[in-house]
Amino acid sequence: MERPLDLDAIQAFVLVADMQSFTRAAEALDSTQSAISLKLKKLEQRLARRLLERTPRLVRLSADGQHFLPAARELLAAHERALGKLNLGAARFSVGISDHVTGSGFAKVLAQVNGYDPGVVIEVRIASSRDIMQQYERGELDAAIVRREPQDVGGELLMEERLGWFAAPQSNCWSGDTLRVATFSSTCRIRELSLARLDDAGIPWLEVFVGGGIQAVGAAVTAGLAVSALLHRTAPAGAVDVGAQMGLPPLPLAQVMLHSRLKEARTREALRTLAAALKAA
Hints:
Elements: H1 7-19, H2 22-28, H3 33-47, E1 52-54, E2 59-61, H4 63-84, E3 91-98, H5 99-102, H6 106-116, E4 120-127, H7 129-137, E5 143-147, E6 156-161, E7 163-167, E8 174-175, E9 178-184, H8 189-200, E10 205-211, H9 214-222, E11 228-231, E12 240-241, H10 243-246, E13 254-260, H11 265-280
Parallel strand pairs: 3-4, 3-5, 9-10
Antiparallel strand pairs: 1-2, 5-13, 6-13, 7-11, 7-12, 8-9
Helix pairs in contact: 1-2, 1-3, 1-4, 2-3, 2-11, 6-11
């Protein structure tokens, strides 16, 4: 009788395949890159197949890995179904995420979290970083993933994201010598920061659009109305960073912080998977 496959190794394989990164998979599993690599090496030895092609900058599935991935997902799902029959109910938690952080790949992020543990129900709220932090501080959320504001305290640094000046290709963002800008509402720190940088650089600006969220401002950029300061991960499809081309002042990195009061191991693991998937998106 052959030895059964190691479910931990299967789970690591699926996460590495989804996130295309040993580092992100290790973060999701609260492990180390070397430990994940060892698990997968043993899995490949057990199957006598090479599942992953590894390069210094890229991890991708081999032909055998692509063939094995659906079976690996089904094996994990069967395991969860078996455990589900023993559990009294699904685990649940709420998390608020800044709309500056979610980006266009958020659907894939949710799919990865669900694939990791389908029995965890996540209530997700998306709003501005300030609104999310206020809800978290009032105890309305179990966790928050937000862009760090000057008044925020505590939290874990999740990642640093680039800010850029984005516009639609071929759009004219100037009115004479005055830069046409699309901004967020007055409560947004990015608005305050970007306009201050323009003032410091001596660049006159005209606010031609004010949006209440990333979708509204992104639509204004796509329509060619103006240039806007946006995180690279949330810039609308087709928009380009025109900062250097237009001689606009550089913008600092945005710090994305994770705040959590979760105590139960299962929900903490799901949140860790969500955070790692966001970083990989």
